[in-house]
């Protein structure tokens, strides 16, 4: 299978060369690279241009205006992609050389597979590994995520993805391009949790594979998307985004309602009501105590 690797770059110049080299040095070679910079204020564009003539790089595009959301870049890259499979290789992370070699064959083995992902190392700004991201799933099932598994997507959603994003890093994911397009692509309005939304939609269409081996290095630092979300946005904005996500998913499930999705629809409806109560309570507290 042919893989399109999209690097949505923004303000990560200090990590970019290591990121791109970890892509070009993959043991699996049947891929193209699409480099996209969202008008970074640092010298990211200059670094990307060093690679624009590399035989594996099919596009190197520097935006003239910032898009305002990395998910615009996801959609833009996928519109350009020639591959059957997509890897969103975020610009501050690093890949194990065997990342593609171990995940891509799973799609050949199971024609119903729509998404495969691996466990990730936790890595700081200095490149030091400080653990793994398994703690993100321990509250859901501390034992299951210690080994490889394959599940029906609907079962995975019902057990995990309805309640939290158990696929914490796009850099650890390979997914089916056609499926991404069929479910409408990423929602740029969900600036901080758009990945949760698109994983839910994709996984609902087929099977999912999880590799317990750490094949991805998920970096945490003060300019990461997660850190910026916590720093720039107040609690009310985060709650608003979660409610927007829940509503988006409910509309999606309603348009695809059948015997298999009815339970998810009912489950999500209850969670919407719960979020609405939380938001109403928070709004009242802000009004009277801010």
Descriptive terms for the model:
290 residues, alpha/beta, 10-stranded mixed β-sheet, 11 helices, 44% helix, globular
Summarize the structure.
This protein is α/β, with parallel strands linked by helices and 290 residues long. Helix content is 44%, strand content 21%.
Question: How is the secondary structure organized here?
Answer:
Layout: E1 3-9, H1 13-24, E2 31-37, H2 44-49, E3 57-62, H3 70-80, E4 85-88, E5 94-95, H4 99-109, E6 113-123, E7 129-132, H5 135-141, E8 149-152, H6 153-161, E9 173-176, H7 177-182, H8 194-203, E10 207-219, H9 225-232, H10 235-255, H11 262-289
Parallel strand pairs: 1-2, 1-4, 2-3, 6-10
Antiparallel strand pairs: 4-9, 5-10, 6-7, 6-9, 8-10
Helix pairs in contact: 6-8, 8-10, 10-11
Overview of the molecule:
39% of the residues are buried. The chain is globular and about 50 Å long. The chain starts with a strand and ends with a helix. The chain is an alpha/beta fold and 290 residues long. It has helices spanning 13-24, 44-49, 70-80, 99-109, 135-141, 153-161, 177-182, 194-203, 225-232, 235-255, 262-289, and strands at residues 3-9, 31-37, 57-62, 85-88, 94-95, 113-123, 129-132, 149-152, 173-176, 207-219. Helices cover 44% and strands 21% of the residues. Strands 1, 2, 3, 4, 5, 6, 7, 8, 9 and 10 form a 10-stranded mixed β-sheet that branches. The model has no long low-confidence stretch (mean pLDDT 92).
